Automatic annotation (TrEMBL), chains A, B:
Keywords: DNA-binding, Transcription, Transcription regulation. It comes from Microbacterium awajiense. The keyword Transcription regulation applies. Pfam families: TetR_C_33, TetR_N. Residues 83-173 form the HTH-type transcriptional regulator MT1864/Rv1816-like C-terminal domain. InterPro entries: Homeodomain-like_sf, HTH-type_TetR-like_transc_reg, HTH_TetR, MT1864/Rv1816-like_C, Tet_transcr_reg_TetR-rel_C_sf. Residues 12-46 form the HTH tetR-type domain. This is TetR-like C-terminal domain-containing protein. Gene3D superfamilies: Homeodomain-like, Tetracycline Repressor, domain 2.
Length: 185, 185
DNA sequence: CGACTCAGCTAATATCGTTAGCCATAGAGC
DNA sequence: GCTCTATGGCTAACGATATTAGCTGAGTCG
């Protein structure tokens, strides 16, 4: 039996690809093992369990998403930053639906999530939002983006109105919302 | 073997309660059967499969949600209607997380979803939004609510800022967004 | 060259969904 | 009240999956 040269990183990466292809909840150790040309129990030499594998994907993907958001907003501010942030967020979620779903199942400590929050905070600072107001606005922004992308990639938008145009509308609407964010409540 | 008096409706209702308690993806025929004091294969006399059972929950729950939204917005319009709509949406999602998750896995034709859309359309008409603009605004509204409630019930909001206050901020922000919805794009 | 580590294997178990076929009960018809 | 039938609930069985317990051979280090 020649060795397959597996490592935790290889297993996680393979699993992430499968999650992207088949869906987060279709991810199975059997599929990962087959993809790697290995028997299922062999995977346990590299990951503790299916749950641990999922957490691994979660951590890596949250980092990837944070990278994408940071890269998209470097050197810009205000409405332009919001627009690019939203675009990058949606692009990641659509290109990697399985990985994106993974980012929503956070482990207790996830450095990627913290970095994403930092990027968003920086963007919001451009609207003069800080402290509790920034927390609320960040949650609103995240909710809108998470909701839209989730609904889009699960086929939740039935009507044949262009989804791209609806997303552009959402982004413009979010700019309006942030510009006029209700103060002093 | 005394009869248990099952019907499709009873099975679906029981399953919905289990989904609310244990989570949508923890829903299992074994749990439903045990709850009903019956063996697993007996359920197949009333539902076609686990998938069909899930679809059943989905249809019923979408109807319940539509009812709640319609009831909350009857006789009001404008900002007040948006506020009540949002509140009822979140209340349903929090009180019935499993059922709510079910509403996001739509069957092909779901009368509840259509009724929900009608309620939202009526509310948006109060802001002069119709046609494509109403579609975009409805998607934005739905995205924000879906995102917020999903993140909330999955524990996605880490920071200890009050979630109630953040939701109030989101609702106010949505009112701002709808009032200033970008026209003529 | 020898011993040790460990990656991948087979075997086995538990849980689930699903199907096939049995049998007793509830209710219809007389 | 009696019979007959439709059917609800059952047991038995299979395939898929996750997980654990050992085995064995391949690299590696002295």
């Amino acid at each position: 039996m020649p060795r397959a040269g597996l490592t935790p990183a290889v297993v996680i990466e393979t699993a992430a690809r499968i999650a992207d292809r088949d869906g987060w909840d279709q991810l199975t150790l059997a599929a990962v093992a087959e993809q790697l040309g290995v028997r299922v129990p062999s995977l346990y030499k590299h990951v503790e369990s299916l749950d641990a594998l999922r957490r691994g994907i979660s951590v890596v993907s949250a980092g990837d998403l944070a990278d994408a958001l940071a890269e998209a907003t470097v050197g810009v501010a205000g409405d332009e930053a919001v627009t690019r942030l939203c675009g990058a967020y949606r692009a990641y979620a659509l290109a990697h639906p399985g990985r994106y779903a993974a980012t929503q199942h956070p482990g207790s400590d996830n450095p990627g999530a913290a970095r994403t929050l930092a990027v968003v905070d920086a963007v919001l600072a451009g609207y003069g939002l800080t402290g509790d107001e920034a927390v609320d606005a960040a949650r609103a922004l995240r909710s809108a983006l998470h909701g839209f992308t989730t609904l889009e990639s699960s086929g939740g938008f039935g009507i044949p109105r262009s989804i791209d145009r609806s997303f552009a509308g959402l982004v413009d609407g979010l700019v309006v919302m942030l510009s006029g964010w209700p103060r002093g409540r």
